[in-house]
Fold this protein.
Amino acid sequence: MNNNDDNLNKPQETEAVETDVTNEAESVNDQASSEQPNNEEDKSVNNDENNDQNNESENDMNSEKTWHNKNALKRGVAMLGYGFVAGFVRLGITLIAVFQFFSLLFAEKPNQPLVKFGQNLNTYLYQINQFLTVNSEMYPFPFADWPDSEPK
């Protein structure tokens, strides 16, 4: 009976060893499978971060283009307005010239306040023309001071 008892014990030991090996194999598989989703999650997080960075750079480029477009539109509206104002300034200069002609004709001397005002109007017209031809980024009066001297 000892042989039978030994044989009975051996399969149990073998079954125990097989169970231990199976349990170890399952735990290794569980660890491997638990690591894989983490890697996939890390990859998806990295992809999300890369996508966010790409989107941010695209948004920066789009906002930069939008900013330039808004600035160009703002300048375009100002240019139309200043072009309209420039016509009235030219009319004012013409009226000053006619009045100065009659002043010279009758008083034989120019009207000094109109000489200074005419110079200021000419400087203002020069500033408008510089702005309209994009030679200057400075917006003329009323966004700047009224010109009080010759153009610079």
Notes: The first helix runs from residue 2 to 107. The CA atoms of residues 44 and 50 lie 10 Å apart. The mean pLDDT is 75.
